[in-house]
Amino acid sequence: MTNELNDLFANCELLPQEVEELSRLLATGNELVQKAIDIVKIIQQEVDLGKMPKVGLVLYEAIKAELTTMASVEDLFGEQVAGFVQSLLRVGELYRNHPDVQSDAFRKLLLTMAEDIRVVIVLICSHLYLIRKIDSYEESERMRIATEASFLYAPLAHRLGLYKVKSELEDLSLKQTNRTIYDEIVTKLHDTKQQRDAYIKAFIEPVQRKLEAAGFQFTMKGRTKSVYSIWNKIKKQNTVFENIYDIFAIRIILDTPYEKEKADCWQAYSIVTDMYQPNPKRLRDWLSIPKSNGYESLHTTVMGPEGKWVEVQIRTQRMDEIAEKGLAAHFKYKGVKSESNFDDWLANVRDLLHNPSAGMEYLDDFKLNLYDKEVFVFTPSGELKQMPKGATLLDFAFMIHSNLGSKCIGGRVNGKNVPIRYQLNNGDQVEIQTASNQTPHEEWLEFVQTTKARTRIKQYVREQENAYMDLGKELLKRRLKNWKLEYEEGVAGKLAKKMGSPTIQDFYKRLAEDSVDLAKVKDAYIACMAPETKPDEVRSADGFEHVSSLSDSNVKEDVLVIDNNLQGIQYNLSKCCNPIYGDDIFGFVSVKGGIRIHKKDCPNAPQMLARFGYRFIKARWAGKSGSQYNCTLRVIGTDDIGIVTNISSLIQKESNVSLRSMSVDSCDGLFRGTLTISVSDTKVLDGIIKKIKAVKGVKSVDR
After folding, report:
1. How far, in Å, are 211, 335, 355 from residue 296 at the CA level?
2. Cα 89 from Cα 78, distance rounded (Å)
3. Count of C-beta atoms within a 10 Å radius of residue 499
4. CB of 384 within 8 A of CB of 376?
5. What pLDDT sits at residue 324?
6. How many CB atoms lie under 10 A from the CB of residue 613?
7. Bridge partner residues of 632 (DSSP)
8. Which residues pair with 662 in a beta bridge?
9. Are 685 and 703 in contact (CB under 8 A)?
10. Among the listed ranges 327-331, 431-435, 468-472, 558-562, which one has the minimum average pLDDT value?
11. 324 φψ region: left (φ > 0), alpha (ψ -120 to 50), beta (else)
């Protein structure tokens, strides 16, 4: 092994064939391999995680340079190294789509495709290498590298606890994107470095003596903010360099028992503020009431020698451990947004980064299953879209546009033709193919995953079924007219069952599809029109005669009076118009021998009166309502999710009204709802209709 290889891969326990292959690749002098060696040096300096990231990166660049193959890598280095290289290749393929790295979805996709945490670390160190060499690139490429450093890799390094790497990425990014500001801050820091170092030393020494005299065990750290952090402060506070309070910062970490933590922190605070004048506006007490994320510390800003402000943070070792590695890591209390599962994962990783000896085996087995419920795919233009795991090409089409989904016949994924059932994978580039004569099918519901796709498919299928039903019903009416027979809804229902259909809707659909033998329909319909006899114990309404005890004394005509005392008469409320107490009604003697109660304005009334006037019976309500009646309301309004909540909430507040069912649909910006409610009479119904009409966004309410 050469001296360079020996230095780079010391303690990696390389096998003889691995040493031979790495030596061969290095001897080629290939530019990409040399680049990999330079990045390996950064990895070794910043966070040495053993063999995998260093060897894997060299082999990845060698494959790109066509100096070796995946088959050879797996044969010589084994499955684990080959899998690591494959992850690097996947991420490299991702970048060829030129996505917007500033999007949160891209970060999720990057982490998902990387799988191994060490792949992410390789990417961070690779980008640090690029930004260090940034002057050798064209201007457009320099801006891309700087933007990725600021928006993607610096935040990832921050979360991983690679603070030195994070600061360098941010500073070099600022140097590229705003050179004037960068040079100005660097110049001011450089001009004051000696004085600043001497100042921090002069500030710390008397505090150390006082704390030691008080018997404290402690450590003290002094620091100067990075260029990027200072620039952030200048922007946020809309001020100048000289007015930044915490360019100087001191952290006092006490080694003290848990039960004495708060008292000792306040005693240390007292020592510091006795020596230096505190700014009362800059006191932050997170000891008495810790932050919601668990962060505990005492912050103050004091006036040090020469009238300069210095921030002092006082905490215990336990508090520092929580702040640095636990519930409230530095990136959290600085306000960086993050997902809880990502943070939990990083807490474990951060421990390993600070203690590499804790076990490389853990990292070997660790996979980035952070976003295992999502996939991220690209449109033909390179726009990144987030989909649920298991989503298909058809789901993607409906997500882009409902019309695109309805006309979808297939697509091309990564340049290859695929069917509509194809399940999307991370990083797929998807193009939808359509046909003008394509329509949604009910079978599509078997494999689509997204709510939008299922809703649109169901809506189309329902509309098609309704159209078929209307067509079939109209066809039956025309046939009956040709046969000199009258259409009757009740007879049609019996006909459907006689013809083998479970429902009349199914029968109408079969008629429209021409799957019913019309030659048999006529005889079956006539057979269904024959009256049926009922058991003797039920009194037939055919022989109904007005009984005086059922009528009011003032009524002199023959009227069926409906109240709670009515006995011996078989009657029911018609479902075609759903009459309720208080409606103007009439009775209709059915062929089954009972009486059906209809509203006088029932849509079927004119036809019934014209054909079967002899079956009509005058009827009215009497007494008081003692029952609840179902009533269907149709509501139309502006398509707003809040309208449903407002209506249902309004009904629930009514003591004498209950909501039995509710179906909602929307189209062309309008909300259409069908409500079935239970009320006692028309007075209550009129009241609830009036209140629903008053709901914001409601355009009409019809019974």
Report:
1. 21, 15, 24
2. 17
3. 18
4. yes
5. 56
6. 8
7. 676
8. 675
9. yes
10. 327-331
11. alpha
Determine phi and psi for 517, rounding to 5 degrees: -75, 105
The answer to whether 204 touches 252, Cβ cutoff 8 Å, is no
Q: How far is CA 407 from CA 103, 403, 438, 441, in A?
A: 30, 6, 5, 11
SS3 482: helix
HEC profile for 567-636?
CCCCEEECCCCCCCCCCCEEEEECCCCCEEEEECCCCCHHHHHHHHHHHEEEEEECCCCCCCEEEEEEEE
For 401-452, how does the pLDDT look when each residue is reduced to its tens digit (9 = 90+)?
A: 988 999 999 999 888 899 999 999 877 889 999 998 888 988 999 999 998 8
Residue partners of 284: CB distance under 8 A and separation at least 6: 297, 298, 299, 300
Cβ contact 326:294 at 8 Å: yes
At position 85, the amino acid (one-letter code) is V
The side-by-side arrangement of strands in the sheet containing 408-413 is 416-418, 408-413, 430-434
Which residues have C-beta within 8 Å of that of residue 523, sequence separation ≥ 6? none
CA distance 266 to 262: 6
- Go through the chain and tell me how many residues it has: 703
- Tokens representing 335 are 């306000």
pLDDT digits (tens, 9 = 90+) for 190-202: 777 777 778 888 8
The three-state secondary structure class of 671 is strand
Q: What distance in Å separates the CA atoms of residue 100 and residue 134, rounded to the nearest whole number?
A: 20
| Mean pLDDT within 271-283 | 89
Number of H helices, E strands in the chain: 28, 20
- Predicted pLDDT at 336: 42
Q: What values do phi and psi take at 607, rounded to 5?
A: -65, -40
Confidence of residue 366 (pLDDT cuts 50, 70, 90): very low
Q: Which two tokens stand for residue 127?
A: 């980008």
Q: What DSSP line would sit under 222-246, residue for residue?
A: EEE--HHHHHHHHHHHT--GGG-GG
pLDDT in tens, 511-551: 877 777 777 888 888 888 755 433 333 344 444 443 333 33
- The enclosing H or E element of 31 equals helix 31-46
Is residue 657 within 8 Å of 650, Cβ to Cβ?
no
Own/partner pairs for 332-339, CB < 8 Å, 24+ apart?
Answer: 332/293, 332/295, 333/291, 333/293, 333/295, 336/155, 336/158, 336/159, 338/159, 339/370
